[in-house]
Amino acid sequence: MKSKSAIVLGCLMICAFAWLAKTGQAQELDSESSTPPLNFKAELAYVSKYVWRGLTLNPDPALQPSITVSHQIGLSYNLWASMDTTSVGEDIGYGDRAGSFTEIDHTLSHCFAAGVASVTVGLVHYTFPNTGFASTSEIFVSAAFAGNLSPVLGVNYDLDEAEGAYVSAAFSRELSLGDTRKGFETLNISGRIGYGTSDYNKFYFGVDKKAFVDLLVSASAPIKINNKFSIIPSLSYSAVLDRNLRRNVSRPNQFIGGLTLSFAF
User: Among 160, 201, 171, 182, which residue's Cα sits nearest to residue 53?
Assistant: First the structure.
């Protein structure tokens, strides 16, 4: 475990040095452009339940704030957290967790163009305060392609706990509503299907086999208040796909409602 933590730390240091090395180049570009070198985005989401890759991590509502700092050269850092709003933890021995953060994630990534694709590589470090669960980290790579469905292919590999991979294929489509009088300009439809290696599925589902893990379909209709602030209602459907994995979860099919406040500055 110590060696893997060192790998995580090493990856973070490499990304940090890359950021510093390229910042000088970006500053030269900034002198000839009005585009700010750094961009910030803050979000606060309220979800009816917290479902992650088919697993119900909280069957009750949760608050999920996040902040992202991105540089025009493609580097970004995201801090994301989930706060329980009820005492759901009492029945599994963690006491009343209402008002407590039960997950805090740190993501460092770099996005760059590679041929016809936009490639993102990075690292996510998951921590679970107030739960007793061990922290873990994933390295990931994804490739986004242009087109009507904006397909994205991704691979996440868990370094510490699962030591397995989660492979995903996603799509999204933005539909114009043609009426901006009430702020609704577009309807965004997205979907994702995930596939897990045997090690991944054994750790998260207790099933030692390669299999399709989950399907997630979402719809959202952003309400644009101004150029910086939006309110985004959403509805998602999550389903665990493999029948053996379904036997080991109490809620294999879920609808999740959400409302997100988004502010860019």
Answer: 201
156 neighbors 139 (Cβ within 8 angstroms): yes
Question: Which pTM value belongs to this model?
Answer: 0.86
Alpha-carbon span 8 to 252, nearest angstrom: 32
Element (H, E) at 234: strand 229-240
What pLDDT digit, counting tens, does each position of 95-151 carry? Answer: 567 889 999 999 999 999 999 999 999 999 999 999 889 999 999 999 999 999 999
232 touches 223 (CB < 8 A): yes
| Helix/strand/coil (H/E/C) assignment for every residue in 75-101 | EEEEEEEEEECCCHHHHHCCCCCCCCE
Q: Report how far residue 161's alpha carbon sits from residue 1's, in angstroms, rounded to the nearest whole number.
A: 9
Domain ranges of the chain: 2-264
Topology annotation, domain 2-264: Porin (2.40.160)
Q: Which two tokens stand for residue 73?
A: 């050269």
